[in-house]
Automatic annotation (TrEMBL):
InterPro entries: Poly_Biosynth_Transport. This is Polysaccharide biosynthesis family protein. The chain crosses the membrane at residues 12-31, 37-57, 77-100, 112-128, 293-317, 323-342, 354-371, 383-403. PANTHER family: INNER MEMBRANE PROTEIN YGHQ, PST FAMILY PREDICTED COLANIC ACID TRANSPORTER. It is found in: Cell membrane. It comes from the Bacteria. It is a multi-pass membrane protein. Keywords: Cell membrane, Membrane, Transmembrane, Transmembrane helix. One of its GO terms (cellular component) is plasma membrane.
Protein backbone atom coordinates (compact mmCIF):
# COMPACT_ATOMS: atom_id res chain seq x y z
CA UNK A 1 0.00 0.00 0.00
CA UNK A 2 2.90 2.38 0.70
CA UNK A 3 4.24 1.89 -2.79
CA UNK A 4 0.78 2.34 -4.31
CA UNK A 5 0.33 5.66 -2.52
CA UNK A 6 3.83 6.72 -3.52
CA UNK A 7 3.09 5.91 -7.17
CA UNK A 8 -0.28 7.64 -6.91
CA UNK A 9 1.51 10.65 -5.48
CA UNK A 10 3.68 10.91 -8.57
CA UNK A 11 0.71 10.42 -10.88
CA UNK A 12 -1.44 12.91 -9.00
CA UNK A 13 1.33 15.51 -9.00
CA UNK A 14 1.40 15.16 -12.76
CA UNK A 15 -2.38 15.46 -12.89
CA UNK A 16 -2.20 18.55 -10.68
CA UNK A 17 0.36 20.19 -12.97
CA UNK A 18 -1.80 19.25 -15.95
CA UNK A 19 -4.93 20.61 -14.25
CA UNK A 20 -3.39 24.01 -13.55
CA UNK A 21 -2.12 24.46 -17.09
CA UNK A 22 -5.30 23.01 -18.61
CA UNK A 23 -7.30 25.81 -16.97
CA UNK A 24 -5.01 28.30 -18.70
CA UNK A 25 -5.17 26.82 -22.19
CA UNK A 26 -8.88 26.04 -21.85
CA UNK A 27 -9.57 29.68 -20.97
CA UNK A 28 -7.50 30.87 -23.94
CA UNK A 29 -9.29 28.51 -26.34
CA UNK A 30 -12.86 29.23 -25.19
CA UNK A 31 -12.45 33.00 -25.00
CA UNK A 32 -10.60 33.22 -28.33
CA UNK A 33 -12.79 30.86 -30.37
CA UNK A 34 -16.20 31.51 -28.82
CA UNK A 35 -18.95 28.93 -28.36
CA UNK A 36 -19.22 27.80 -32.01
CA UNK A 37 -15.49 27.92 -32.76
CA UNK A 38 -14.69 25.99 -29.62
CA UNK A 39 -17.34 23.49 -30.69
CA UNK A 40 -15.47 22.87 -33.97
CA UNK A 41 -12.23 22.57 -32.03
CA UNK A 42 -13.83 20.07 -29.62
CA UNK A 43 -15.13 17.95 -32.52
CA UNK A 44 -11.71 17.76 -34.21
CA UNK A 45 -9.92 16.83 -30.97
CA UNK A 46 -12.62 14.25 -30.22
CA UNK A 47 -12.18 12.75 -33.71
CA UNK A 48 -8.44 12.35 -33.20
CA UNK A 49 -8.79 10.88 -29.74
CA UNK A 50 -11.62 8.61 -30.87
CA UNK A 51 -9.53 7.13 -33.68
CA UNK A 52 -6.53 6.64 -31.41
CA UNK A 53 -8.62 5.22 -28.60
CA UNK A 54 -10.51 2.75 -30.74
CA UNK A 55 -7.52 1.27 -32.60
CA UNK A 56 -4.86 1.66 -29.90
CA UNK A 57 -4.13 -1.43 -27.82
CA UNK A 58 -3.54 -0.98 -24.10
CA UNK A 59 0.07 -2.03 -24.61
CA UNK A 60 1.24 -0.69 -21.25
CA UNK A 61 -0.77 -3.47 -19.59
CA UNK A 62 0.88 -6.10 -21.79
CA UNK A 63 4.35 -4.79 -20.95
CA UNK A 64 3.55 -4.92 -17.22
CA UNK A 65 1.86 -8.33 -17.44
CA UNK A 66 4.45 -10.23 -19.49
CA UNK A 67 7.50 -8.05 -18.91
CA UNK A 68 7.37 -8.90 -15.19
CA UNK A 69 7.43 -12.65 -15.97
CA UNK A 70 9.85 -14.99 -17.67
CA UNK A 71 9.47 -13.30 -21.07
CA UNK A 72 11.24 -10.17 -19.87
CA UNK A 73 10.79 -6.52 -20.88
CA UNK A 74 12.45 -6.85 -24.31
CA UNK A 75 10.06 -9.48 -25.67
CA UNK A 76 7.01 -7.82 -24.07
CA UNK A 77 8.00 -4.43 -25.50
CA UNK A 78 8.60 -6.01 -28.92
CA UNK A 79 5.06 -7.39 -28.92
CA UNK A 80 3.71 -4.01 -27.79
CA UNK A 81 5.57 -2.11 -30.54
CA UNK A 82 4.21 -4.55 -33.12
CA UNK A 83 0.71 -3.81 -31.90
CA UNK A 84 1.39 -0.05 -32.02
CA UNK A 85 2.48 -0.30 -35.68
CA UNK A 86 -0.67 -2.28 -36.45
CA UNK A 87 -2.74 0.38 -34.68
CA UNK A 88 -1.18 3.18 -36.74
CA UNK A 89 -1.88 1.37 -40.03
CA UNK A 90 -5.49 0.50 -39.23
CA UNK A 91 -6.05 3.91 -37.67
CA UNK A 92 -4.91 5.76 -40.79
CA UNK A 93 -7.51 3.93 -42.87
CA UNK A 94 -10.18 4.50 -40.23
CA UNK A 95 -9.28 8.21 -40.06
CA UNK A 96 -9.71 8.64 -43.80
CA UNK A 97 -13.14 7.00 -43.73
CA UNK A 98 -14.25 8.93 -40.65
CA UNK A 99 -13.17 12.35 -41.93
CA UNK A 100 -14.48 11.69 -45.47
CA UNK A 101 -17.95 10.97 -44.08
CA UNK A 102 -17.80 13.57 -41.29
CA UNK A 103 -20.03 16.10 -43.02
CA UNK A 104 -22.79 13.52 -43.32
CA UNK A 105 -23.24 13.51 -39.54
CA UNK A 106 -21.05 16.22 -37.96
CA UNK A 107 -21.35 20.04 -38.19
CA UNK A 108 -17.79 20.45 -39.55
CA UNK A 109 -16.98 23.02 -42.32
CA UNK A 110 -15.11 21.99 -45.50
CA UNK A 111 -11.99 23.98 -44.64
CA UNK A 112 -11.50 22.04 -41.40
CA UNK A 113 -11.69 18.52 -42.86
CA UNK A 114 -7.97 18.36 -43.75
CA UNK A 115 -7.13 19.83 -40.35
CA UNK A 116 -9.14 17.04 -38.73
CA UNK A 117 -7.46 14.35 -40.84
CA UNK A 118 -3.99 15.71 -40.07
CA UNK A 119 -4.70 15.76 -36.34
CA UNK A 120 -5.89 12.14 -36.48
CA UNK A 121 -2.65 11.03 -38.21
CA UNK A 122 -0.45 12.93 -35.75
CA UNK A 123 -2.34 11.38 -32.83
CA UNK A 124 -1.72 7.90 -34.26
CA UNK A 125 1.99 8.54 -34.74
CA UNK A 126 2.23 9.81 -31.16
CA UNK A 127 0.85 6.64 -29.53
CA UNK A 128 2.83 6.27 -26.30
CA UNK A 129 1.37 3.38 -24.35
CA UNK A 130 4.44 1.14 -24.75
CA UNK A 131 7.05 3.48 -23.19
CA UNK A 132 4.55 4.21 -20.43
CA UNK A 133 4.34 0.46 -19.73
CA UNK A 134 8.13 0.12 -19.57
CA UNK A 135 8.30 2.91 -16.99
CA UNK A 136 5.49 1.43 -14.89
CA UNK A 137 7.07 -2.00 -15.06
CA UNK A 138 10.12 -0.50 -13.34
CA UNK A 139 7.91 1.57 -11.00
CA UNK A 140 9.52 4.70 -12.50
CA UNK A 141 6.46 6.85 -11.87
CA UNK A 142 8.52 9.95 -11.14
CA UNK A 143 10.32 9.73 -14.48
CA UNK A 144 7.02 9.08 -16.28
CA UNK A 145 5.36 12.05 -14.57
CA UNK A 146 8.18 14.38 -15.64
CA UNK A 147 7.87 13.19 -19.24
CA UNK A 148 4.07 13.51 -19.29
CA UNK A 149 4.32 17.08 -17.98
CA UNK A 150 5.60 18.03 -21.44
CA UNK A 151 2.08 17.73 -22.90
CA UNK A 152 0.25 20.41 -20.86
CA UNK A 153 3.30 22.66 -21.00
CA UNK A 154 3.44 22.58 -24.81
CA UNK A 155 -0.33 22.98 -25.02
CA UNK A 156 -0.24 26.08 -22.84
CA UNK A 157 2.66 27.61 -24.78
CA UNK A 158 1.03 26.67 -28.08
CA UNK A 159 -2.31 28.15 -27.02
CA UNK A 160 -0.59 31.40 -26.15
CA UNK A 161 1.16 31.49 -29.53
CA UNK A 162 -2.14 30.69 -31.27
CA UNK A 163 -3.83 33.66 -29.58
CA UNK A 164 -1.02 35.95 -30.77
CA UNK A 165 -0.35 34.67 -34.29
CA UNK A 166 -3.19 32.34 -35.42
CA UNK A 167 -6.36 32.92 -33.35
CA UNK A 168 -8.36 30.25 -35.15
CA UNK A 169 -9.41 26.63 -34.80
CA UNK A 170 -6.43 25.60 -36.96
CA UNK A 171 -4.00 27.46 -34.71
CA UNK A 172 -5.19 25.69 -31.58
CA UNK A 173 -5.22 22.29 -33.32
CA UNK A 174 -1.58 22.83 -34.36
CA UNK A 175 -0.74 23.52 -30.71
CA UNK A 176 -2.47 20.31 -29.61
CA UNK A 177 -0.72 18.29 -32.35
CA UNK A 178 2.70 19.63 -31.31
CA UNK A 179 1.98 18.63 -27.72
CA UNK A 180 1.13 15.05 -28.77
CA UNK A 181 4.43 14.66 -30.64
CA UNK A 182 6.53 16.19 -27.85
CA UNK A 183 5.07 14.09 -25.02
CA UNK A 184 5.51 10.88 -27.03
CA UNK A 185 9.16 11.75 -27.68
CA UNK A 186 9.70 12.58 -23.98
CA UNK A 187 8.20 9.27 -22.79
CA UNK A 188 10.25 7.20 -25.23
CA UNK A 189 13.39 9.04 -24.15
CA UNK A 190 12.64 8.39 -20.47
CA UNK A 191 11.80 4.70 -21.04
CA UNK A 192 14.92 4.00 -23.10
CA UNK A 193 17.13 5.24 -20.28
CA UNK A 194 16.25 2.04 -18.39
CA UNK A 195 15.42 -0.47 -21.14
CA UNK A 196 16.88 -0.60 -24.61
CA UNK A 197 14.46 -1.40 -27.42
CA UNK A 198 15.62 -4.38 -29.47
CA UNK A 199 14.00 -4.10 -32.92
CA UNK A 200 14.77 -7.76 -33.46
CA UNK A 201 12.23 -8.57 -30.73
CA UNK A 202 9.38 -6.77 -32.53
CA UNK A 203 6.94 -9.59 -33.20
CA UNK A 204 3.22 -10.28 -33.12
CA UNK A 205 3.74 -14.02 -32.61
CA UNK A 206 6.40 -14.56 -29.90
CA UNK A 207 4.24 -13.69 -26.89
CA UNK A 208 1.05 -15.40 -28.21
CA UNK A 209 3.06 -18.58 -28.94
CA UNK A 210 4.31 -18.63 -25.35
CA UNK A 211 0.94 -17.66 -23.84
CA UNK A 212 -2.08 -19.27 -25.57
CA UNK A 213 -4.55 -16.80 -24.03
CA UNK A 214 -2.56 -13.72 -25.04
CA UNK A 215 -4.73 -12.60 -27.96
CA UNK A 216 -7.90 -12.94 -25.91
CA UNK A 217 -6.38 -10.69 -23.25
CA UNK A 218 -5.14 -8.23 -25.91
CA UNK A 219 -8.52 -7.95 -27.61
CA UNK A 220 -10.40 -7.72 -24.31
CA UNK A 221 -8.25 -4.88 -22.96
CA UNK A 222 -8.44 -3.09 -26.33
CA UNK A 223 -12.22 -3.35 -26.29
CA UNK A 224 -12.30 -2.13 -22.68
CA UNK A 225 -10.09 0.84 -23.54
CA UNK A 226 -12.30 1.63 -26.52
CA UNK A 227 -15.34 1.77 -24.25
CA UNK A 228 -13.59 4.22 -21.96
CA UNK A 229 -12.92 6.41 -25.00
CA UNK A 230 -16.56 6.06 -26.06
CA UNK A 231 -17.66 7.32 -22.67
CA UNK A 232 -16.06 10.70 -23.39
CA UNK A 233 -14.86 11.33 -26.93
CA UNK A 234 -17.54 9.48 -28.91
CA UNK A 235 -20.14 11.01 -26.62
CA UNK A 236 -18.87 14.49 -27.58
CA UNK A 237 -19.20 13.57 -31.26
CA UNK A 238 -22.69 12.18 -30.70
CA UNK A 239 -23.78 15.30 -28.80
CA UNK A 240 -22.41 17.43 -31.66
CA UNK A 241 -24.19 15.31 -34.26
CA UNK A 242 -27.51 15.69 -32.43
CA UNK A 243 -27.30 19.26 -31.13
CA UNK A 244 -24.66 21.01 -33.27
CA UNK A 245 -21.21 22.51 -32.66
CA UNK A 246 -22.31 24.72 -29.74
CA UNK A 247 -23.61 21.68 -27.86
CA UNK A 248 -20.37 19.81 -28.59
CA UNK A 249 -18.30 22.68 -27.18
CA UNK A 250 -20.50 23.03 -24.12
CA UNK A 251 -20.40 19.33 -23.41
CA UNK A 252 -16.60 19.25 -23.71
CA UNK A 253 -16.28 22.05 -21.16
CA UNK A 254 -18.69 20.33 -18.78
CA UNK A 255 -16.92 17.03 -19.31
CA UNK A 256 -13.40 18.39 -18.85
CA UNK A 257 -14.25 20.19 -15.62
CA UNK A 258 -16.87 17.81 -14.24
CA UNK A 259 -15.15 14.55 -15.16
CA UNK A 260 -11.76 15.45 -13.80
CA UNK A 261 -12.56 12.65 -11.34
CA UNK A 262 -12.61 10.16 -14.21
CA UNK A 263 -9.01 11.11 -14.90
CA UNK A 264 -8.32 10.59 -11.21
CA UNK A 265 -9.98 7.18 -11.47
CA UNK A 266 -7.69 6.32 -14.37
CA UNK A 267 -4.74 7.50 -12.28
CA UNK A 268 -5.72 5.12 -9.47
CA UNK A 269 -6.17 2.31 -11.99
CA UNK A 270 -2.73 2.90 -13.49
CA UNK A 271 -1.08 2.99 -10.06
CA UNK A 272 -2.81 -0.09 -8.70
CA UNK A 273 -2.65 -2.41 -11.74
CA UNK A 274 1.07 -3.28 -11.50
CA UNK A 275 0.67 -3.99 -7.78
CA UNK A 276 -2.28 -6.31 -8.40
CA UNK A 277 -0.24 -8.19 -11.01
CA UNK A 278 2.70 -8.59 -8.62
CA UNK A 279 0.62 -9.45 -5.53
CA UNK A 280 -2.28 -11.64 -6.66
CA UNK A 281 -2.73 -13.20 -3.22
CA UNK A 282 -3.52 -9.77 -1.68
CA UNK A 283 -5.21 -8.23 -4.71
CA UNK A 284 -8.77 -8.24 -3.34
CA UNK A 285 -7.73 -6.56 -0.08
CA UNK A 286 -5.73 -3.88 -1.91
CA UNK A 287 -8.65 -3.13 -4.22
CA UNK A 288 -11.11 -2.94 -1.32
CA UNK A 289 -8.98 -0.46 0.61
CA UNK A 290 -8.47 1.72 -2.44
CA UNK A 291 -12.22 1.76 -3.12
CA UNK A 292 -12.85 3.01 0.43
CA UNK A 293 -10.35 5.86 -0.02
CA UNK A 294 -11.91 6.70 -3.40
CA UNK A 295 -15.40 6.91 -1.90
CA UNK A 296 -14.35 9.67 0.49
CA UNK A 297 -12.43 11.56 -2.19
CA UNK A 298 -15.35 11.37 -4.60
CA UNK A 299 -17.81 12.76 -2.08
CA UNK A 300 -15.54 15.74 -1.35
CA UNK A 301 -15.03 16.49 -5.04
CA UNK A 302 -18.77 16.46 -5.82
CA UNK A 303 -19.37 18.89 -2.94
CA UNK A 304 -16.71 21.23 -4.37
CA UNK A 305 -18.35 21.07 -7.81
CA UNK A 306 -21.74 21.97 -6.32
CA UNK A 307 -20.42 24.92 -4.32
CA UNK A 308 -17.90 26.46 -6.70
CA UNK A 309 -18.61 24.98 -10.13
CA UNK A 310 -20.71 27.82 -11.54
CA UNK A 311 -18.15 30.48 -10.64
CA UNK A 312 -15.34 28.34 -12.04
CA UNK A 313 -17.17 27.97 -15.37
CA UNK A 314 -17.67 31.71 -15.76
CA UNK A 315 -14.12 32.50 -14.65
CA UNK A 316 -12.51 30.03 -17.05
CA UNK A 317 -14.78 29.93 -20.09
CA UNK A 318 -16.88 33.09 -19.82
CA UNK A 319 -20.58 33.82 -19.50
CA UNK A 320 -21.40 31.95 -22.71
CA UNK A 321 -20.73 28.61 -20.98
CA UNK A 322 -22.68 29.38 -17.79
CA UNK A 323 -25.56 27.17 -18.89
CA UNK A 324 -23.54 23.96 -18.70
CA UNK A 325 -23.29 24.10 -14.88
CA UNK A 326 -25.77 21.33 -14.07
CA UNK A 327 -24.35 19.09 -16.79
CA UNK A 328 -20.94 19.59 -15.15
CA UNK A 329 -22.32 18.68 -11.71
CA UNK A 330 -23.96 15.52 -13.05
CA UNK A 331 -20.70 14.52 -14.75
CA UNK A 332 -18.86 15.19 -11.49
CA UNK A 333 -21.16 12.71 -9.74
CA UNK A 334 -20.45 10.24 -12.52
CA UNK A 335 -16.76 10.83 -12.01
CA UNK A 336 -17.12 10.05 -8.31
CA UNK A 337 -18.82 6.77 -9.21
CA UNK A 338 -15.97 5.93 -11.62
CA UNK A 339 -13.48 6.78 -8.89
CA UNK A 340 -14.95 4.09 -6.64
CA UNK A 341 -15.05 1.57 -9.46
CA UNK A 342 -11.48 2.09 -10.71
CA UNK A 343 -9.84 -0.37 -8.32
CA UNK A 344 -12.61 -2.93 -8.87
CA UNK A 345 -12.10 -2.81 -12.63
CA UNK A 346 -8.32 -3.14 -12.22
CA UNK A 347 -8.86 -6.17 -9.99
CA UNK A 348 -10.84 -7.93 -12.71
CA UNK A 349 -8.31 -7.10 -15.43
CA UNK A 350 -5.31 -8.14 -13.33
CA UNK A 351 -7.02 -11.48 -12.65
CA UNK A 352 -7.25 -12.10 -16.40
CA UNK A 353 -10.96 -11.24 -16.60
CA UNK A 354 -10.72 -8.30 -18.98
CA UNK A 355 -13.49 -9.88 -21.06
CA UNK A 356 -15.84 -9.76 -18.10
CA UNK A 357 -14.91 -6.13 -17.42
CA UNK A 358 -15.62 -5.31 -21.08
CA UNK A 359 -19.10 -6.83 -20.99
CA UNK A 360 -19.90 -5.06 -17.72
CA UNK A 361 -18.97 -1.73 -19.35
CA UNK A 362 -20.38 -2.43 -22.81
CA UNK A 363 -24.00 -3.07 -21.88
CA UNK A 364 -24.57 0.17 -19.89
CA UNK A 365 -22.66 2.20 -22.50
CA UNK A 366 -24.79 0.80 -25.33
CA UNK A 367 -27.89 1.70 -23.32
CA UNK A 368 -26.56 5.25 -22.79
CA UNK A 369 -26.04 5.81 -26.52
CA UNK A 370 -29.44 4.31 -27.33
CA UNK A 371 -31.14 6.77 -24.98
CA UNK A 372 -28.96 9.80 -25.83
CA UNK A 373 -31.19 11.49 -28.41
CA UNK A 374 -34.29 11.05 -26.24
CA UNK A 375 -32.46 12.33 -23.16
CA UNK A 376 -31.16 15.41 -25.02
CA UNK A 377 -34.63 16.14 -26.33
CA UNK A 378 -35.81 16.08 -22.72
CA UNK A 379 -33.00 17.91 -20.91
CA UNK A 380 -30.42 18.89 -23.58
CA UNK A 381 -26.86 18.72 -22.15
CA UNK A 382 -28.15 17.59 -18.75
CA UNK A 383 -29.79 14.64 -20.47
CA UNK A 384 -26.50 13.63 -22.11
CA UNK A 385 -24.74 13.89 -18.75
CA UNK A 386 -27.42 11.73 -17.11
CA UNK A 387 -26.80 9.03 -19.73
CA UNK A 388 -23.13 8.90 -18.78
CA UNK A 389 -23.93 8.91 -15.06
CA UNK A 390 -26.30 5.97 -15.49
CA UNK A 391 -23.73 4.04 -17.53
CA UNK A 392 -21.05 4.58 -14.88
CA UNK A 393 -23.33 3.54 -12.01
CA UNK A 394 -24.46 0.34 -13.74
CA UNK A 395 -20.87 -0.54 -14.67
CA UNK A 396 -19.55 -0.17 -11.12
CA UNK A 397 -22.41 -2.27 -9.76
CA UNK A 398 -21.53 -4.86 -12.39
CA UNK A 399 -17.86 -4.88 -11.35
CA UNK A 400 -18.87 -5.49 -7.75
CA UNK A 401 -21.21 -8.34 -8.68
CA UNK A 402 -18.53 -9.92 -10.90
CA UNK A 403 -15.95 -9.79 -8.11
CA UNK A 404 -18.40 -11.34 -5.63
CA UNK A 405 -19.20 -14.03 -8.19
CA UNK A 406 -15.57 -15.09 -8.54
CA UNK A 407 -15.24 -15.81 -4.84
CA UNK A 408 -15.55 -19.54 -4.24
CA UNK A 409 -14.50 -22.50 -2.11
CA UNK A 410 -11.47 -24.48 -3.14
CA UNK A 411 -10.54 -27.80 -1.48
CA UNK A 412 -6.81 -28.48 -1.38
CA UNK A 413 -5.44 -31.91 -0.37
CA UNK A 414 -1.90 -32.14 0.99
CA UNK A 415 -1.04 -35.74 1.90
CA UNK A 416 -3.45 -36.90 4.59
CA UNK A 417 -4.43 -33.34 5.51
CA UNK A 418 -7.43 -31.77 3.88
CA UNK A 419 -7.93 -28.05 4.34
CA UNK A 420 -10.55 -25.70 3.03
CA UNK A 421 -9.52 -22.25 1.83
CA UNK A 422 -11.42 -19.37 0.35
CA UNK A 423 -9.71 -18.03 -2.76
CA UNK A 424 -10.42 -16.20 -6.00
CA UNK A 425 -10.90 -18.63 -8.83
Amino acid sequence: MRRIFKNMGWLLSGRGFNAVLSLAYLALATRTLGLDGFGYFAIIVALGQTVTGLVNFQTWQFVVRWGAGTDGPARAAGFAVGLDLLSAFVGAIFSAILVYTAQLWLPLPDELLWVAFGYCIVSLLAIRSTPTGLLRLRFEYGRATAAEAVQPLIRAIGAGLAVLFMPSVTGFILAWAAAEVCVAAALWYAALQKDKLDLGEVSLTAIPNAHPGAWRFVLSTNALGSLQIAAKQVMILAVGAIGGEAFAGGFRIASQLGQALVQLAQTISKAIYPELVHAQERAAEIARRMANVALLGGAIAVLVALLFGREALVLIAGQGFRGVYWAMVILAIGGAVELVGASLESLLVSAGRAGTAFIVRAVPMALAFALLETAMGWQELKGAALCLLGASALAVIGFWVAILGQQGIRIEVDGDDERETRAAK
